[in-house]
C-alpha cells in the first residue's frame, strides 16, 4: 500500500499540496488496518510524526508502537485530569515502546484562577479549553509535520465523515486517523485480544474521558461522548476542529 503513494516533501506547508496528499493517501488507505495506515505515516514523515492520546485507553498507542516503534505520544496535561488518567499515561510510558511527551498550559490552574476567577470551566468553557487544550496542543505539535489521533466515525454524529488521512487546516499539518473505520466492536475485540491498557474509569461508566470537572459517567443508551460537557451544548474542545 505504501508503494502506491509518492513520498511528499515533508517540509511542505502549502495547504493545497497537503490537501492533495491527504486525498490521495486517504483513497489508497481507506479500509486498511490501522497498523498499515500508521506504517505509511511513519515511512512518510519519520520522526516528524507523533500521535496524541487522552489516555482513555492505549489502543492507538499500542498499534503505533507496533507500526512506528519509539513514536512520540503527545499528552496534554490540562491540570484538571483524573488521577486515573495520569496513572494510565504513566503505564503507557513504562510498558509500551513509545515516548510520552507531556505538554502543559502556560498557566497553572492556580494562576488561571487568579487571572480569570475560580471555575472558569463552568462559566466559559470555550476560553478554558482554548488556554488549557488548544494553545498547548498548538505548541506541542509545532515540531511535527503530521499527527495521529484516535478519532472514529462511529463515535458521534459530528465525527461521521472522519477521513483516514486529513488535513489539520489550523496548523497546516497532515492529520492521520488510523481508527476512522473501526467500530466500537473492533476496539473492544482488540482490547481483549491484546490486553490493551485501559483507563480504570471506563469500567465505572466514563466511556469518553476528559477533564474531571467536565466529564461524567455515561448512562445506559446514551452516546459514548454524552458525558462530556453534559451541562451545555458543547461537544468538542476545539483541538479536532
Ligand atoms: Fe477547562 Fe473543561 Fe475544557 Fe478541561 S474540558 S480545559 S476543565 S473547559
UniProtKB/TrEMBL annotation:
HAMAP family registered for this protein in UniProt: CysH (MF_00063)
Annotated positions binding [4Fe-4S] cluster: 128-129, 211, 214
Domain Phosphoadenosine phosphosulphate reductase positions: 53-217
Active site: 237 (nucleophile)
GO MF entry, a single one: metal ion binding
GO cellular component: cytoplasm
Protein name per its UniProtKB record: Adenosine 5'-phosphosulfate reductase
Family assignment from sequence similarity: Belongs to the PAPS reductase family. CysH subfamily.
Keyword Metal-binding: yes
EC number: 1.8.4.10
Cofactor binding: number and manner: Binds 1 [4Fe-4S] cluster per subunit.
Provenance organism: Cryptosporangium aurantiacum
Reaction catalysed by this enzyme: [thioredoxin]-disulfide + sulfite + AMP + 2 H(+) = adenosine 5'-phosphosulfate + [thioredoxin]-dithiol
Protein origin, superkingdom: Bacteria
Cofactor(s) the protein requires to work: [4Fe-4S] cluster
Protein's gene: cysH
Role this protein plays: Catalyzes the formation of sulfite from adenosine 5'-phosphosulfate (APS) using thioredoxin as an electron donor.
Amino acid at each position: 500500500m505504501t508503494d502506491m503513494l509518492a513520498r511528499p516533501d515533508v517540509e511542505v506547508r502549502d495547504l493545497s499540496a497537503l490537501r492533495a496528499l491527504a486525498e490521495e493517501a486517504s483513497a489508497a488507505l481507506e479500509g486498511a488496518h490501522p497498523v498499515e495506515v500508521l506504517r505509511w505515516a511513519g515511512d512518510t514523515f519519520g520522526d516528524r510524526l507523533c500521535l496524541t492520546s487522552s489516555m482513555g485507553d492505549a489502543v492507538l498507542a499500542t498499534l503505533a508502537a507496533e507500526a512506528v516503534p519509539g513514536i512520540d505520544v503527545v499528552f496534554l496535561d490540562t491540570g484538571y485530569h483524573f488521577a486515573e488518567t495520569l496513572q494510565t499515561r504513566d503505564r503507557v510510558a513504562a510498558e509500551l515502546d513509545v515516548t510520552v511527551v507531556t505538554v502543559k498550559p502556560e498557566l497553572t490552574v492556580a494562576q488561571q484562577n487568579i487571572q480569570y476567577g475560580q471555575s472558569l470551566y463552568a462559566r466559559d468553557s470555550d476560553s478554558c479549553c482554548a488556554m488549557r487544550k488548544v494553545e498547548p496542543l498548538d505548541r506541542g505539535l509545532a515540531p511535527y509535520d503530521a499527527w495521529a489521533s484516535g478519532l472514529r466515525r462511529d463515535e458521534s454524529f459530528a465525527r461521521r465523515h472522519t477521513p483516514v488521512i486529513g488535513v489539520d487546516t489550523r496548523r497546516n499539518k497532515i492529520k492521520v486517523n488510523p481508527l476512522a473505520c473501526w467500530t466500537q466492536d473492533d476496539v473492544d475485540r482488540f482490547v481483549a485480544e491484546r490486553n490493551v491498557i485501559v483507563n480504570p474509569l471506563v469500567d465505572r461508566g466514563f466511556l469518553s474521558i476528559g477533564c474531571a470537572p467536565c466529564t461524567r459517567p455515561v448512562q445506559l443508551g446514551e452516546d459514548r461522548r454524552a458525558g462530556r460537557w453534559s451541562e451545555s451544548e458543547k461537544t468538542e474542545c476545539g483541538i479536532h476542529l
